[in-house]
User: Fold these one by one.
Assistant:
Number 1:
Amino acid sequence: MREFFRELVHALEGGEAAELVSVLESSGSTPRGAGTMMAVFPGGRSTGTVGGGNVEYEAQKLCAELLEEKRDALRRFRFVQGDAASLGMVCGGDVTLLFTYLPAGDGAAVRVFRRLMELSGGSSGAWLLRRLEGERVTDMKAATVGEADGKLLGEKPVLADGWFSVPVERPGRVYVFGGGHVSQALVPVLAGVGFRVVVYDDRPEFADPALFPAAEETLCGDFLALEQQVQVTSDDYVVIMTRGHQADYEVLCQVLRSGARYLGCIGSRRKLALCRERLLAAGFTEAEYARLHAPIGLPIGAETPEEIAVSVAAELIGVRAGKLD
């Protein structure tokens, strides 16, 4: 999203107006969910997406009119084959799009988008809030935790009390412990779907930032002293892929009671069974161990590092979306 807002700021400050298009609500099978955004500029240039296909084509056509007329709009599109009001698609659902006109040089909008860019990479998350009155957006601001009603600052877009809130930067990071081949395949996949990743290894050659250009940070340290560089919170995800059973155990001893949103450990069922026995002998409970995703990833028959990366990323996406525990 940082690049999306950067392009908006560049256009507005450069003398271009823009029409900001947002998916306000969606139901059934639609191309994209609530919160998805696209910006359209005079001449038809655009950035972002609201799902492609006919809905995006119709949205871009409407944007040309709205830019000319300098106004906002609210439109509902249906995806029901054979319906006279539909777009002729077979998805079976509908989507409501919010169109917001941003005049060239709009200082208030530029300040909001710049702040969202500055908040990118922060640990507390960031949200874009817009006040709706009918079809018009009458107020817009960037917010972090503590700066707005907590019910507006969730994992998913929220429409409540006249405000439309979209998470731009979700709180929490993915801590990947171990910098081997699977981690090297996993990090770019996670970064590509919006996770902020920190890699930690005790070997300098595997904690090399050059191996992980998509990572937010790469750390080198002792697996027995994670607290010196890492503080796992309830917003964070933990992926354990160290070089061996002992290092896995050392990391698990320190993170199993962290309250992390997700805990996963790679390994064979035999290796993980031995690790479980050691943890229970060390005083951890069955309930605490049960929070661990082990073996890690969705069971799709993954074998290569690249396939395992897909299965792990899919599991984290499921947890983030509230579809998996």
Number 2:
Amino acid sequence: MSEHLRTALSLAAHGVPTLPLRAGKVPFGNCRACADNACGGRPNMKTPGPCACPGPCHAWAAATTNPDVINSPTWQRAWREAAAVAYHPGGAGLTVVDLDNADAIAWARASLPATRIVRTTRGEHWLYQGAMQSANAVRPGVDIKSTMAYARWLGFGTGTMTALPDAVRALVVKEPSTVRPAPQPVTVPALVGGGECPHRTPTYLDRGIAMAEQRITEAREAVHATVYRTFLAVLSTHGRCGCLTDAHTARLFTAAQAKGESPRHCTDAWTNALTTLGLSHV
């Protein structure tokens, strides 16, 4: 068993979702068709691509605490070639303030509460308890890595971890606001051939939307993939008959955003699902 695999299993046992990295801090494609990221991406990545894998396969979305997955033959091959271990901070309820240089470190020491610190090649990772939206270049030399992002595992660090402060959350807020961005409206294809929609009953339709909300809310890892698959399931049932309203899509988008998805990612996942089902031009 490789050292990276042992580390991954140990982290997973403590509830930290992990994944292998190739040289250059690049994730593997964790299925045969996506070896070396040959497919170019998939809908559960930040940048959607043509890959249509049935499950999480890339980057942060591949991170898992399941030892059976980590020990699977595909992952075993990846661990043998891995240059490092990465983890999904948001999946472990953490936020990493990635400080790339001395100036960024000096700013953090003057502006942020003390917490656990992990030394990196160029600077430091400050770890806080609590998850939030990830963002790059929030300040010169400062990135935020939490939900839908991965960070290299460089050890446990030193110091006592403290709660995620408002000063860090504020770094990704462009304009202060107490209002959550409204889900973007999506036009659903009209009922083909006219007539009354067979799903227009409170029991059938509302039960389906409620189950979809629950599926998203209960996701513990691969949230973006879960949101996409849930949207796909809803649209496969209701997307051709016109029974979905803006109120229904708002419920789904709200559930997704409560799990850390941005309005843009909700819209991208919905659009990808429409395209997959051939509904985008209906």
Number 3:
Amino acid sequence: MPNLDPALYFDHSATTPPRPEVIEAMRLAMQESWGNPSSLHGWGERAAMAMERARQQVAGLLNCEPEALVFTSGGTESNNLALFGVAQRYSQPQHLIISSVEHASVENAARRLQAQGWQVTRLPVNAAGQVDPQALLQALQPNTVLVSVVHGQNEVGSLQPIAELGQICRQAGVLFHTDAVQTVGRIPLDLAQLPVDLLSLSGHKLYGPQGVGALYVRPGVELQPLLGGGGQERRLRPGTQGIPAIVGLGVAAALAAQELQQETARLRQLQRHLARLLAAVPSLRLTGPAELEQRLPHHLSYCTTAISGNVLVREMSRQGIAISAGSACSSGQQIPSRILLAMGYSEAEALGSIRLSLGRATTQAAVEQVAQSLRAVLLSVSEPAPQPLPELAARLR
């Protein structure tokens, strides 16, 4: 395996490298806090104290009550617990509203509920991938029980107006859930002010470990657990908690809270610089909001018809640069990005989508190198300029 330069890792929306402080805290937890936190003896008490300290750290990042947080295995489980936890409270199918650009964990959960008889409305988005609050208002029905709209879209970076959407839901007496996996630790979130009932987050998106996350459940909101078992996590997520991972999530959240304002401003500056450089590449088309303040601060997304996104990812990888593609591959066949299709892009454009997501190790020099490499790869696959006829060429000499 060749040496990989962390500065050239432009796939932080997929996962982030755990910080050294996180790794050390997890090592100590495995060494010292390995007891079962449900046990009443000293070893169990030590593990429980470490877990509750982490719960307080995550709550500090979100400005919410620590007791409102349920630890899970990550964003996918949190999203599923939110949707199915609400749905299973009803003996008869009801009405669910999601956006047309949700993460697969929400979209697929909605499809399962639809197969069980639930009515599901998928709100359309504009060309920037954003929901119109008026569309939500018009979609509400007497039997609507839950609305789920992603806060920061993982593929195109669009930020949704969750304050407005949540307020509409609150006035209608409908629960509001947001998948904030991409925004927690990157954008300030104040759950004491936001009209949000359920919020999902994941540790590995904010420089914590993989395999751990949380679901914020506003006090008073009732859910049914997905699993049968013991009474852990207020009976909403039974099973012995993974203390080292939870401790790592807590440390990552505490560090994010300390550095949020400064790091977000730094990423915005690098984002603007990269956007200016890539604006000069004619075969690239920016997707998502043109106003960078309306998108994730670390995120840029593009599409091209000159080359498929997956091929472009591989070409960049050969140069030691990590980016990601929006199109999927199944049984050897590429599948166009459903997010871009929902935003009105053609299948050809949706097959050529890429995402560049910056992080703590990103430097200005790395941004410039990535832009130069992308330009070179795209120029190499562009159609050659038509050659003049021989007699015309002779006259041009």
